[in-house]
Amino acid sequence: MKLGIINSAFDQVGMDTKTGLEHIARIGFDTVDIFTEAMSIEKDEVKMIIDTCEKNNLPIVSTVMVAAGLVDFNQVVREFHVQRTKKFIDLAEQFQSDNLLLVLGEYIWQREVIPPEDQWNWGVECVREIGEYAANKGIEISLELEPFRMSLLNNIPEMVRFIDDCDVESVKANIDISHLVLSDSCPSELAKLTGKANHVHISDCDGKVHGDLPPGRGVVKFSPYLQAIKELEFEGAISLELEYSPDPERIVEWVEEAYLATDTLMQQLDLRS
Predict the structure, then answer these.
(1) Looking at CB atoms within 10 Å, which of 23, 110, 120, 192 has the fewest?
(2) What is the model's pTM?
(3) Cβ–Cβ < 8 Å for 108, 119
(4) Distance CA 176, CA 215 (A)
């Protein structure tokens, strides 16, 4: 597998996208995931990202978006976010990405007012349409498991159920290791995602709350999860997800530390190719 990173690690501290991408290439990453907004990104920005990545031999394997509105109870909101997601798929096609990383929303009002199965079915209908659109462009959907109590996809059984309900070959799962820890999902459960996974996120946490820390700064025992991922035998990338550096002025060192730690973990299991 390849070792990548989501470029938001640099963008969120105010570093311009081009400089961030150049750091990512210099540090030694194989690939990059791009987090942007397809509805507002300028053509010049798209061209700059493509040109910079090509110049630095940095393939864009994943384009990242959050679309909480796909499970909204208002049909017009869901329809808007379906069209917005298709814009992201079009952008992913320009980037020549393998997948669109898609984060769905949450059940509202503590699952008490609207039947939760209605929100589930709205999500399935929307993602099925999106998945079919993506498949026609040679792109897969990679659904992210969010470990929060009200998240639609907050454990492996629910992820499997959702993918099966969508019943579209292009709709698959992203495996986020720290999210699995926070959702009390053990490595052995990953076998349920055989043939259903296409991308990986890696970061550390304190075992209690969402952290997105460099591996080694928290409590996650990565090797059993990485071994289970290896046994799934799918080609893809393991992308670092780093958020909210405590010292933005030292973001480069933060990313370098995470790169070295993750590379070591992958090399120990002969997982990086």
Answers:
(1) 110
(2) 0.96
(3) yes
(4) 13
Identify whether 273 is part of a domain.
no
Q: What is the spatial order of strands in the sheet that 237-240 belongs to?
A: 2-5, 237-240, 197-202, 171-176, 140-144, 99-103, 60-66, 32-35
Kindly state the helix (H) or strand (E) to which residue 196 belongs, with its residue range.
Answer: none
The CA–CA distances, whole Å, from 26 to 10, 31, 35, 117 equal: 14, 12, 19, 47
Measured between alpha carbons, how far apart are the two ends of the chain, in Å? 5
**244 C-beta neighbours (distance < 10 Å), count:** 12
Structural domain including 72 reads 2-268
Judge contact between 254 and 216, C-beta under 8 A.
no
Chain segment 115-167, per-residue pLDDT in tens: 999 999 999 999 999 999 999 999 999 999 999 999 999 999 999 999 999 99
Compute the mean pLDDT over every residue in the chain, rounded to the nearest whole number: 97
Count of domains forming the chain: 1
Q: What percent of the chain has pLDDT over 90?
A: 97
Q: Which helix (H) or strand (E) holds 74?
A: none
Q: Check which CATH number belongs to the domain holding 71 and give it.
A: 3.20.20.150
pLDDT at 221: 97
- Which strand (E) or helix (H) includes residue 126? helix 116-135
How far, in Å, CA of 114 to CA of 64, rounded?
A: 29
